[in-house]
Amino acid sequence: MTDRRILLASVAGLFGLAAFRWLRTAPAQAAEKKFEVEKTDAEWRAQLTPQQYEILRKHGTERPGSSPLLKEKRKGIFACAGCDLPLFSSETKYDSGTGWPSFWKPLDNALGETKDTTFGMTRTEVHCRRCGGHMGHVFDDGPKPTGLRYCIDGFGLVFHPAGPQAS
Length: 167
What we know:
By secondary structure, the chain is of the alpha+beta class. It has four helices and nine strands.
């Protein structure tokens, strides 16, 4: 009886480990691609805050409602915190009610996409096309005219205000 319990516990543990690895595998396509801006892990850690590093380099996410950029209303450009590539215009930002900055359209030639199958679901991950930094995901439940919702981690962005409002 004890041998059977040990065997069943071992098998269950192996299945649990396999499931955990399957559920938590970060999108590999973006990590394997070559980008214009490439740095060592040590260089990224020195440049970024711990939270930016976790999001941009490790495909992490912030707590909903925690980014100061969620409430940013000024006109300007939202750029990658890793390489400062302009990604979104404030003209396309809207309140999706999700707790993350949301946009209905990126700037031209700003983002790349990869298939993300983490946590047992299939989503479209978006990343900075210049440095590969993870930005968030795009969904097809956004407003017109695109019908898209780019759900972006605010700590992966920096904001550059436009015009006289910048002072």
